[in-house]
């Protein structure tokens, strides 16, 4: 949103523009220069210490270096199979907006082998040994955060779990009304959704174990998410998953022949708040669901507990029934039943003191106070086991704001975040969204505009990665095939003083649009170096810009990079460069990112942009965007 006052020059992009702007080199000179550069680069490369990015510079970019130094936008938009599909529900919000896309043409879908190693994202089938579903009322943010911390040791999202360990996954089954629109509570809810990506909003108004179970069997299955064991609980229960795993391991070995490991159903009659059930047991339950509904007459009970009672009655009847036909019917039911473990003691109810918790307790229900929850977790030795086993630590983070200014971005914020998250997921980058740093600006002794939160965020996140890729909320990725590594290769290879000089000196890459007075800080790359830390520290002292509109932190950045010691470290992308910060009017098919930044609230412009992004991914060509 920074730079919202800036004009949008109406000229199309210079045909031979390079990332440094078209005017710097003539075409011939440039070709020679590029060839020279490539040669120099390879010489350097073989015996240099150019390994600051050695982990990440492995894909396509370096292989096609001579070509990649010019960044003439590709007009062909690859249709990248299904894995580009935006997850889960962006469509409805966009459809209500008027389309900003002037001309959309169908384009022949041309396939070429992807040069990027695409890892499975949310739309590819995923199987987990244990799938934990925690039912939680939409408004209970604080309990959810306590659960994340207590169960999984997740204090913050600075190094988020981008891919869950195949052995285990968890999610919140969120019921009840979302907090009212345009309230602070709603902002927090949207923010939580963006930052944690573990909320599954359902239509139910209350927790019901049966509904959770059916939801897992239908909605989740349709999405390709399957499991061996389902662990269902409400947010007021605490489950000791380690004990459950241990018990399952030992029990399964002793199953009667004919029963599968996933035939297990672990119930506690009378306790609706915790259940462990194997996938086969769940299927058997739902196969003849109606049969078990009325087994228990007094009070309500869960379907699974009823199934257990039904099973018990079959066993009892088998003792006295003699009629052959009936006997074989009962025998078949017995053989076809899940393997039930009935639990009375180890599924406990909170008795208001931890001393009441017996050894080997695996679940305690009805813990309403957060401090009690923490005390029980301690008593049950909940270690905060990690749910995430990253294959490798991400070296690049896509970082954005999840702070919803005066509610204006409420409808589009989480969709805009999904656009960036799926991009990060596709290329194995981390996706970090933050809001607290924006909110805290008003709490400071010297109050600053919320947008200064960006600097706090960058300071906080940068040390955890090699490169940080900042994107304002209103910047939308149009071409997710573009990788950060390729861009860095291009910067390096076409750097006038050579790739080595780029590695040594450049720590900030940012655009300076032609008609703007200064940089546009809506999108930039920053490298984790001492210089960057010093730059950020100094920036924090720019009191003149704390509340000085319209530029604020952007003005402070611009001022500072005029100074010797700072300006040498900055690569300015000039002349309406299309590398990563294209204004809507200047869009050329193939451009990586469109940054909407209108004068007014960017909500509808962003929704339109997201719609266009999806069309592009479906193989259509979007040629321009309307002025907002
Ligand atoms: C959960 O939400 C309910 C209703 O919104 C509220 O009464 C209760 O205090 C909340 N509990 C926690 C732990 O936040
Ligand atoms: C469900 O009902 C059918 C028909 O009565 C029966 O053949 C089948 O075994 C039942 N399934 C289970 C899991 O009991």
UniProtKB/TrEMBL annotation:
Pfam families per UniProt: Glyco_transf_34
Keyword Metal-binding listed: no
Transmembrane residue ranges: 31-48
GO BP annotation list: protein N-linked glycosylation
Gene3D superfamilies hit by this protein: Spore Coat Polysaccharide Biosynthesis Protein SpsA, Chain A (3.90.550.10)
Annotated stretches, region: Disordered: 82-118
Family membership: Belongs to the glycosyltransferase 34 family.
Protein name: Uncharacterized protein
Native source organism of the sequence: Mucor saturninus
């Amino acid at each position: 949103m920074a730079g919202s006052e800036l004009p949008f020059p109406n000229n199309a992009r210079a045909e031979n523009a390079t990332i440094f702007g078209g005017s710097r080199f003539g075409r011939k000179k440039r070709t020679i220069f590029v060839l020279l550069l490539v040669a120099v680069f390879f010489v350097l490369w073989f015996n240099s210490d150019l390994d600051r990015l050695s982990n990440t510079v492995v894909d396509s970019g370096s292989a096609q270096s001579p070509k990649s130094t010019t960044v003439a936008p590709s007009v062909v938009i690859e249709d990248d199979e299904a894995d580009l599909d935006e997850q889960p529900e962006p469509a409805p919000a966009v459809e209500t907006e008027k389309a900003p896309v002037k001309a959309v043409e169908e384009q022949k879908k041309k396939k070429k082998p992807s040069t990027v190693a695409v890892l499975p994202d949310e739309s590819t089938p995923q199987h987990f040994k244990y799938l934990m579903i925690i039912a939680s009322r939409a408004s209970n943010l604080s309990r959810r955060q306590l659960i994340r911390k207590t169960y999984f040791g997740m204090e913050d999202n600075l190094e988020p779990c981008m891919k869950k360990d195949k052995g285990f996954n968890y999610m919140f089954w969120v019921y009840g009304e979302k907090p009212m629109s345009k309230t602070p509570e709603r902002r927090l809810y949207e923010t939580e959704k963006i930052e944690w990506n573990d909320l599954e909003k359902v239509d139910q108004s209350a927790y019901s174990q049966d509904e959770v179970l059916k939801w897992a069997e239908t909605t989740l299955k349709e999405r390709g998410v399957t499991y061996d064991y389902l662990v269902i609980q409400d947010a007021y229960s605490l489950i000791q998953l380690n004990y459950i795993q241990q018990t399952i391991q030992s029990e399964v070995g002793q199953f009667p022949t004919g029963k599968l490991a996933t035939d297990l159903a672990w119930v506690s009659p009378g306790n609706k708040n915790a259940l462990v059930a194997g996938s086969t047991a769940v299927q058997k339950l739902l196969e003849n669901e109606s049969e078990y509904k009325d087994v228990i007459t007094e009070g309500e009970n869960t379907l699974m507990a009823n199934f257990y009672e039904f099973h018990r009655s079959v066993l009892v009847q088998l003792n006295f029934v003699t009629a052959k036909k009936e006997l074989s019917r009962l025998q078949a039911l017995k053989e076809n039943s899940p393997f039930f473990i009935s639990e009375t003691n180890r599924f406990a109810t909170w008795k208001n003191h931890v001393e009441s918790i017996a050894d080997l307790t695996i679940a305690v229900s009805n813990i309403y106070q957060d401090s009690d929850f923490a005390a029980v977790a301690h008593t049950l030795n909940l270690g905060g086991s990690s749910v995430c086993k990253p294959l490798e630590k991400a070296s690049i983070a896509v970082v954005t704001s999840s702070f919803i200014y005066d509610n204006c971005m409420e409808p589009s914020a989480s969709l805009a975040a999904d656009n960036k998250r799926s991009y990060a997921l596709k290329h194995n980058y981390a996706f970090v969204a933050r809001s607290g740093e924006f909110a805290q600006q008003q709490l400071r002794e010297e109050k600053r505009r919320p947008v200064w939160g960006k600097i706090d965020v960058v300071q906080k996140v940068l040390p955890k990665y090699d490169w940080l890729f900042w994107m304002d909320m209103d910047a939308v990725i149009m071409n997710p095939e573009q990788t950060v590594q390729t861009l860095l290769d291009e910067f390096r290879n076409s750097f006038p003083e050579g790739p080595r000089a780029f590695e040594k000196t450049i720590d900030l890459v940012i655009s300076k649009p032609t008609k703007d007075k200064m940089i546009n800080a809506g999108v930039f790359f920053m490298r984790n170096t001492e210089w960057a830390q010093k730059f950020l520290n100094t920036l924090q002292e720019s009191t003149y810009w704390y509340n000085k509109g319209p530029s604020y932190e952007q003005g402070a950045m611009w001022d500072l990079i005029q100074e010797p010691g700072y300006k040498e470290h900055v690569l300015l992308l000039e002349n309406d460069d299309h590398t990563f910060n294209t204004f809507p009017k200047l869009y050329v098919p193939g451009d990586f990112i469109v940054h909407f930044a209108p004068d007014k609230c960017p909500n509808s412009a962003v929704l339109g942009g997201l719609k266009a992004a999806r069309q592009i991914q479906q193989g259509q060509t979007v040629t321009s965007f309307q002025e907002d």
